[in-house]
Amino acid sequence: MSLESQPGEQPEHPQPDITAPERPSPQGPRTTEQILDDYEPVTQGEIVHRLKALSSVGYHVGKDLEVKMGLTEPGSRLWYQDPVHNEIRADPQQLLEKDMDYLRFAMAHEGGHRRVTRDTGISPELMHQPGFAFLFNAVEDPRNNNFILEGYPVLQQNVRHIYEHELGFGESVATQAADTLGQTPRFTLAGQEYIKQWMRDQRGEPIEVDPNLPADVREVVEKTVAAAQSRWWTYPSKAEADGGEATIQAYAASANALLKERIWPEYQKLVAADQQEQMAADACNDMAEQARSGESNGSNAIDVAQLSPEEREELEKAIETRTAELRHAAMHDALTG
Questions:
Q1: N or C terminus of the chain with fewer C-beta within 10 Å?
Q2: Is 210 helix (H, G, I), strand (E, B) or coil?
Q3: Residue 208: which residues within 8 A CB-CB, separation 6 or more?
Q4: Beta pairing class for 68-71 and 80-82
Q5: Cα–Cα distance between 35 and 47 in angstroms, integer?
Q6: pLDDT digits (tens, 9 = 90+) for 190-206
Q7: What is the pTM of this model?
Q8: C-alpha distances in angstroms, 181 versus 56, 129, 271, 277?
């Protein structure tokens, strides 16, 4: 079913089946039509109906009647605004399961990104640095939320949904990263902590970094959270945004300067530490696998246990050199994908 089709009158029976479809993980991005095909026709109609009903919120907050609507993978908990294709995408499973208050906020949030989120002053090279895109989103979401809450006070009553939406985003990214890398990376913990501190700020509570974070993550957040706080309060009012793109760009440039100059230099240390740790783990796994292979097939593979400390260190360096380029590429995909 295409989103362009009209769902029409839904029969009283059967009711839409809101169970998440079971399917293998996709090998690449799927179209909205392909995602809809995971569902039965009645459920497709309900998804399309809800997305169309919510689209007016995206148009209104985003001030753009041309923005398209689409879907992300079912159960991903991901909603996002794609500036390249001018499209807002929603999780179809949440469209079926969440109440309309939550869904209205989620759509308003993406419309807010269309309205005030800009990469002004950020080069494509920097945006594609491992970890930077995640950091940008982690500190831009609070800024966008502040714009929405000030410009559209009716959403204040749904603040609990805002927190739920933000925590869902952080947990989803952390889960994906852990699945890819085998552990929860430092960079995701720091990004989640910025969002949690924004929540404290919204409730009128003092900034207080979680003492249970790993020491290096806590140190980075403590050094940068004041800049993150300044950034999430650097946004145009609704009236200023209505005044035109130049004002929106000017505020974005100021906010992005804080990100580049006061947050990223510290945050990228966590990314580098994650990369180094993963490379070392892969090198050790390679050595262990090589040893197991030698034992199982009786080949002339290196017996690691018989190596001297100097020989083992030399072998580790050789393996690390051989795997570094592939691991860097995999890490880059995990951090920017």
A1: C
A2: coil
A3: 197, 200
A4: unpaired
A5: 11
A6: 999 999 999 899 889 99
A7: 0.75
A8: 39, 17, 13, 10
